[in-house]
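Title: [Solved] Diphosphomevalonate decarboxylase 3D structure

Original question kept below for reference.
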Amino acid sequence: MAPEGQWVLMATGRSPTNIAVIKYWGKRDEALILPVNDSISVTLDPDHLSATTTVAVSPSFPSDRMWLNGKVSNSLSFDSPPLQSPLRLLSCLMIREEIALSGGRFQSCLREIRKRACDFEDEKQGIKIKKEDWENLHVHIASYNNFPTAAGLASSAAGFACLVNHVSEHINYYLNTAAVFTLAKLMNVKEDYGQLSSIARQGSGSACRSIYGGFVKWCMGKKDDGSDSIAVQLADEAHWNDLVIIIAVVSSKQKETSSTSGMKDSVETSPLLQYRAQTVVPSRVLKMEEAIKNRDFASFAKLTCADSNQFHAVAYTFDAGPNAVMIAPNRKTATVLLKKLLYYFPPQDKDLSSYLVGDKSILSDAGLHSMEDVEALPAPPEMKTPDQKFEGDVSYFICSRLGTGPKVVAEESEALIDSVTGLPKGV
Ligand code: DP6
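Solution (posted by the thread starter after getting help):
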């Protein structure tokens, strides 16, 4: 039995990211993060892109603290600039300085979870926490993202900034959904996943869709208190498991505007946004649900691309950043696409294995075993100008597929926090 006040109680969870095929853009309530339209996303395989988060509580913790990728984050909150700005996030990951975890969005999530916390007892460890006691226990959160870090990228800071840009929109929900999910497990919250999604939503809107695997709809809801603005699963990842997702992380200059402020500006200045939300999206959402149900790739691609009426062998979509997300209907098409992509965008440093991350087996499926194979690729038939190549424009590609929602990680060895010190392992 742990001595009075000396125990540390922990839980670890892993949460995926999602890519919207019908986008969330614009809020009707900034504080509660209520959207102006429904949105639909696909959840990516957590083996390729996910956040693992360990949360801990102890009577000996004097304040809430958070660490990212093992390093102390000094200014982290779910709505503060660091997570919105690629360069500041970069420094957040690389510099070990610490300030309080005080962001309004983070505190909203924590408050909502604490409100729903239940009595907890672990007789073996001699830990007994009553519902009302959770209010007085501070949390330590350590989170690790499995996407390539600066070291894994082995390229310039610009390259890493691109990576961060790719995930800057997503890192909120990586961390946020992982933290909300894991805190809820730790605090014995009995709410269903829909309710958890409405808490995750208050950290970052798009985050709420990561609470489920497969195809997920975030229903905008009608109520002022946001209680009906929740995620629902349209179909699980097994429903349409031949889809292949390829993300091109590009090397161009990074955008400076976050989604949060970008969408605020759109709501305030664009009459088209109202039209989109009220007229365009509702019918698109219905059609998308039908396309997903019927595994109708032509309609899925058409709706995802939305503005294009060309032949859709592949669907593509962009978030607020410049990185392209391409969805192929099956592996065969994905290999054809990959060969074209690698023809046009060969790796600058000739290292094929770090140029494609995630599901690397797509390379051998495409018959690409070495850089010689890439260099020997024939020019795609549609190419008009000879030798039209853009070496260095793409930092790297990620190949993924549909995946599951968040999961508890039971193995003690995978916990990021030391169960005795309550601090991240290795810090
Ligand atoms: C472009 O969820 O990052 O990815 O709710 O203000 O945190 P906040 O915004 P955020 O918005 C990202 C929107 C998007 C499209 C989408 O995922 O639907």
